[in-house]
Amino acid sequence: MAHHALWAGRFREPLSASALKFSSSIDFDKTLYREDIAGSIAHVEMLASVKVLKAHEARRIRTALRQILREIETGKLDVSGAEDIHMAIEQRLIQKLGPLGGKLHTGRSRNDQVALDERLYLRAAIRDLTKQITNLQRVLVYKAEKYFGAVMPGYTHLQRAQPVLLSHHLLAYVGMLERDHERLLDCRKRVNRSPLGAAAFAGTTFPIDRALVAKKLHFDGIVENSIDAVSDRDYLVEFLSAASTLMMHLSRFAEEIVLWSSTEFGFVHTSDAYTTGSSIMPQKKNPDMAELVRGKTGRVYGALVNMLTQMKGLPLAYNRDMQEDKPPLFDAVTTSLEAVDVFGQMLVHTTFDTARMAEELRTDFTTATDMADYLVRKGLPFRQAHEVTGKVVHHCVTHRMYFGNLDLDTLTAFSTEFDEDIFEHILPTNSVQQKRSAGSTAPNEVKKQIVHWNRVLRGRKALRT
Does domain 111-204+224-355 have CATH number 1.20.200.10? Predict the structure, then answer.
């Protein structure tokens, strides 16, 4: 498509080739062609309803816009020579309709047009991303049910701490993802306001109906202040913040998958379809999908910092700097969607080695807290019980043994409060059974969580755009 600036009336020289190349955004904002055409159709229908355009004019423009949509989707329309997607579509409209095509832009500016397109795009992205989050949550709940009863070492400081149900560990991520889901839904409330009708920033002299356009495009209302409507991108910042938090949660889980896949842990085994090999070491099976999720988190963080940096010094109202909001936004949306999707698929094809987990519990001191709690029930103050248990652990470490190797005579040398029943109390499986607090790793509490999440996820409806 040949470039002809629709704003060129004021100018006597064409834009230089280098300036055009530098300022062109068509390579990335062409992503918004669907949103741009949808907004234009709603706008032209509104112009007809308020008698700014005649009904037959609006019909012809609407028909031509739908034709342009098909031309872009089928590759018949090459938009590469245009300044941006908005100008590309309008130029094509004028080619098809002559001067009538130029009436489309009555009562609006690229400023409110761009803001509208972004909000429509982001609304759809939130719909898709929340759907992916829900799918991942369902995988995790399924795994929690499948492995219910399996006990694993829980960690703090990446040191073995206490026994927990594997299901409990997996459900912790379901809770984190739920908050990610909530943040995105909350962000959507502020995204779903129409800026169209703000024009450049001061509004328009035409008797437009902003509320009607908002209704046609399924917005909850309009951005009330016309300056605010075109000059802020806080809704993008908010989305990128929510996406960054989501990716942070995925990255933490990905790190655990990487660790647990190692020979040193041996807790998980992922299908060949989601792992890779080495070009030189034939024995390798690498958890590359988890590593890539962990690595791609930085791209989404970068998009957030990029957007904050772009906006931090801009005076009101619109500034051309804001053209640069799209590459980080598009990249963050694509990266987040792909990461959640692939991570969920990888988990479907991942199995947990519960026998290995049980063995690691047997050869460590993860029930030391249970030993201390036992002594507290016998009447010792907790601090004294803690010290006695610490000495027992030190004895075991010194003699290269574990709790399972102890006998009662050895234990009573540390405290006469020990009795035969201590050995039942310090079994890892009994450790989780003995928990009493709400939300704990006790099997009955974990069952409650599974029931709760199944109910929540079954009742969840997909967002409409």
Answer: yes
Query: What is the DSSP code (8-state) at residue 14?
Result: P
CA distances (Å), origin 218, targets 10, 159, 191:
37, 51, 12
Residues acting as catalytic residues? 157, 278
> What's the topology of domain 360-444?
Ribonucleotide Reductase Protein R1; domain 1 (1.10.40)
Burial environment of residue 462 by CB neighbours within 10 A (0 to 12, 13 to 18, 19 or more): exposed
Expressed in angstroms, the distance from the first to the final Cα of the chain is: 31
Residue ranges, CATH 1.10.275.10, the chain:
17-106
Write down the pLDDT at residue 461. Answer: 83
DSSP 130-166: HHHHHHHHHHHHHHHHHTTT-EEEEEETTEEEEEEEH
| Average pLDDT value for residue range 404-411 | 94
> What does the pLDDT look like over 339-382, one tens digit per residue?
999 999 999 999 999 999 999 999 999 999 999 999 999 999 99
Q: Which residues is 153 bridged to in the sheet?
A: 163
Query: Angle of helix 443-458 relative to helix 110-146, nearest 10 degrees?
Result: 140
DSSP string, 314-364: PPSS--GGGGGGHHHHHHHHHHHHHHHHHHHHHHHTEEE-HHHHHHHHHTS
Domain 17-106, CATH among 3.10.450.50, 3.40.50.300, 2.40.128.270, 1.10.275.10 = 1.10.275.10
Length of the chain: 465
Domain with CATH 1.20.200.10 in the chain: 111-204+224-355
